[in-house]
Design goal:
The structure is a homodimer. The first copy, chain A, is α/β, with parallel strands linked by helices. Chain A has 2 domains: 131 residues, ATPase, nucleotide binding domain (Nucleotidyltransferase, domain 5, 2-Layer Sandwich), CATH 3.30.420; 166 residues, 2-Layer Sandwich (Nucleotidyltransferase, domain 5), CATH 3.30.420. Helices cover 36% and strands 20% of the residues of chain A. Chain A is built from 9 helices and 12 strands. Chain A has a 5-stranded mixed sheet with strand order 3-2-1-4-7. In chain A, strand 9 and strand 10 form a beta hairpin. In chain A, helix 6 crosses helix 7 and helix 7 packs across helix 8. The model of chain A has no long low-confidence stretch (mean pLDDT 94). At the A-B interface, helix 7 of A face helix 7 of B.
Chain lengths: 315, 315
């Protein structure tokens, strides 16, 4: 049965028709994340109609709509609880009413990090394993967990997805979440330039010549023995390693999936983190596998069928 | 229905008969934690017979035995998985066979931090709340969680109970678990003297005159404005605060229960930790309650009935 899937990112919105674990048609549009939800949803409806035409499927013949949202979500009611500046009026918007009115379809909504993990769990790097943690290293750090075959959500919907905000340095850098020394505040794209700028050796670093200051550039200069880049790369691996060990100690997974744009430099990231975890995680039962995501930025879209099925079982 | 309950600590073993949430009789014996399990179990059998006499109940008329063990346990099979030096041959001991042979009773075994939380959940500070984290500040730091009414155990039985070993300082002190900068390594009774000794102001501290160097002494000297004690107390509160925020971000509880010997100085500990958590935990739904344990060192004993009931439902 066909499903309409949407992954609402901070900069891009992906829309697709998915069936039986395959994407039949997809498109991406620029996010209007600072405009009213009314405008965003109008663009999304157009995108759904467009992928419907491509896949030769009428949207209203689909089973429902699954929406991945970059924020805290009440997955039972489908309401966005907090939008952290992206899509500011999303928390007051009745998304289910929109889906009914626009397409006559039921809607299921879930946090984007959780959706990426569900996608990898059902169709990607987590297939066959019911105890997973996923860490997405991007602008921020997205985390989600599946324990004993259940998606970890918690009483207020924020369990595990706040995992990028575990304190890895008490008294450390102030994070946008209000905590101190979160992994995300200690290293993530959002803070990397600021962290680099605070280092005395930054003024002599080749990193200054980069127009795009991201982890790809950081690891490239580190390989060229740029001292500032080398130190920052080591620092990042330590923070990520400490975070992954904490997540293993919290959720007891058999496998940790690493995702995000950074996985373009997978060899620079995956091996050092695996090595750190092998040395420092306390897992007397054996070794946690650290693996790269397989679905990349299609992971959340690939979770759409599972999420709708779950929603319909619950109702 | 009566249940035999045992809380096997590192220094004391508590044995009791429990029924309908009440302790009918109890005793405590010195732990033989460096002797073979055979000897420990013989003493325990005697203790069970003694509390049986006191409560006028024949042990073999009880429903079963619930055992709280200070280590990693497979709660499904009842085998101890790792003993961390305490009761070294416990992992190879068939405890269920002993319970059958000695009393003809079924046995359920669970980790001690988890048992303390189950006790508080059913009969103490956590009653009526299905989303709890408990942190026991003692020689080490014991952690356990209940999420959406389920005791958090995880694939290998180590979920949440490794919570004292979340990294709160990456690159920090080496912990006995193999990790760096665990909360337990950064402040706990096991490491406190060593941490104090590394401070230059320790040599002039009133703490040196204490025969018992524990948190009670630390907070007492801190109140007298001893600079070393003041700094160590502040440091400890920061570590505990950072840990509790991490646990809230991981498990999304409505309430955090603080337990352990340290709660004798509850006003010195509970208020500063609550204050830290109120400022730094990201909980847009409201405030996490931070409360002291109600059952103290009887908490694990009070979990006995629930654990046996659960075991029998599963079988």
């Amino acid at each position: 049965m066909n499903v309409l899937a949407c992954d609402m990112g901070g900069t891009r919105v992906k829309a697709a028709v998915v069936a039986e674990g395959r994407i039949l048609a997809r498109t991406a549009i620029a996010a209007l994340s600072h405009r009213p939800m009314r405008d965003c949803l109008a663009s999304l409806a157009d995108a759904f109609r467009q992928v419907g035409v491509e896949a030769a499927i009428r949207p209203d013949e689909c089973k429902g709509i699954a929406l991945s949202f970059p924020s805290l979500v009440d997955s039972t009611t489908g309401w966005v609880l907090d939008s952290y500046g992206k899509y500011p009026d999303a928390p007051g918007t009745d998304l289910a009413a929109w889906a009914r009115a626009e397409f006559g379809l039921p809607l299921a909504v879930e946090n984007d990090a959780r959706m990426a993990l569900i996608g990898e769990w059902r169709h990607g790097a987590g297939r066959g394993c019911d105890d997973l943690v996923m860490v997405t290293l991007g602008t921020g750090i997205g985390v989600a967990a599946v324990m004993e075959g259940r998606v970890v959500r918690g009483r207020h919907g924020q369990a595990a997805i706040m995992g990028g905000h575990l304190s890895v340095r008490y008294g450390g850098r102030e994070c946008s979440c209000g905590n101190l020394g979160c992994a995300e505040a200690e290293t993530s794209l959002a803070f990397l330039r600021e962290i680099a700028g605070a280092r005395p050796d930054f003024s002599a670093s080749g990193l200054l010549s980069e127009s795009e200051f991201d982890y790809e550039a950081l690891f490239r200069h580190a390989r060229m023995d740029d001292p500032c880049a080398r130190a920052l790369a080591d620092h990042s691996v330590q923070v990520w390693g400490a975070l992954v060990v904490s997540l293993i100690h919290a959720f007891d997974p058999a496998k940790v999936i690493l995702g995000g744009g950074i996985m373009a430099a997978a060899d620079q990231v995956l091996l050092p983190i695996s090595d750190y975890v092998n040395r420092h995680a306390h897992t007397p039962w054996g070794k946690v596998e650290i693996v790269p995501s397989q679905l990349g930025d299609a992971a959340a879209i690939m979770a759409a069928e599972w999420l709708l099925d779950e929603r319909m079982r619950v109702r």
